[in-house]
Amino acid sequence: MTGSLFAVRLRAELRIALLVVAGLAFVPLFVSSPYWLGVLIVSLYFAILATGWNLLAGYAGQFSLAPAAFAMLGAYVPALLAWHWQVSILIGIPLAAVVTGGVGYLLGRIVTRLSGPYLALTTLSFAEILRLVFYNSYDFTRGDQGLNVPALLDSRVGYYWLFVMLLAAVLGCVWALLRGRGGRFLLAIRDDPLGAASRGIDVVRWKSIAFAVSCALCGIAGAFYGPFAQLVSPELGLIAQTGMVLAMVVIGGSGTLVGPLIGALLVYVTSEWLRDFGGIQLIVFAALVILFARFLPDGLWGLARRLAGGRAAPPGPSAPVGPSAPVGRSASAAPGASPAPVTR
Fold this sequence. Notes:
By secondary structure, the protein is an all-alpha fold. It has 14 helices and two strands. The protein has a single domain (3-307), classed as ABC transporter involved in vitamin B12 uptake, BtuC, CATH 1.10.3470. It has a two-stranded antiparallel sheet with strand order 1-2. The relative contact order is 0.19.
């Protein structure tokens, strides 16, 4: 797929994703239950996580297992500042983006020469170390008891619209990064790192940028989730939370703007519905991930495009790397399937 075709497809996906988000903004007019509003808020939180992780894995090909850990880190930054030094949450939230983006950039520099299972295991180890540090630092983080976080708003409807606007902003941020040559560089690195390097792309730099932006987006999601739940704890960084994010992207469709959004809404709302049948959510979604990976690798969004008459697209379009299309040179309780984030 040429760069111009990729730009057209990306622009079309952004429009559809924003239409979905705009439709979600009207949901409170029809849903008055505080419980289900809370479920939808957490679904939007996961949609932001899935979008951030999809940028790294779906577009850049870097399979990280730390999105939940960075959401936890982002949630703790404003919580710790408010708890120990009475710093306003409105100051702590942007600082959370800076901290998580900086840590993500450093992690990207460390793992830049790793790939496949080695990259996944390294990021998983980092995520577990970070979670255990917060869990065992009782004098500073209060351990598994968690930290109380001041609320930003007084109503769940207000939080719902806040997360809707945040999701729209995150989609715009990802689109802005991908629409330029940076997006083509990331796709080229994902498809053929050696070939991309031979064409003058600074592979280390762009992998690190992808890590930084992805981790910052996850951190922002966590920073806004804390005031909604009014509690942050190490459970936010459990590997089960990362598993949920991966399931959402795989089921919705990786390497697209619409897929993670659809996957997050369907998976989390369905997981709440499955609570009435016992703790089978993880079993169901693990089986679905296996089936989708085997029979529908482009997810529900790819299936929808195929049914609409479009050609089945791969998980992410290939970037042009060759003489015909040269590229430029460049030198709480945690939300999830098991713990209930909201109460009836």
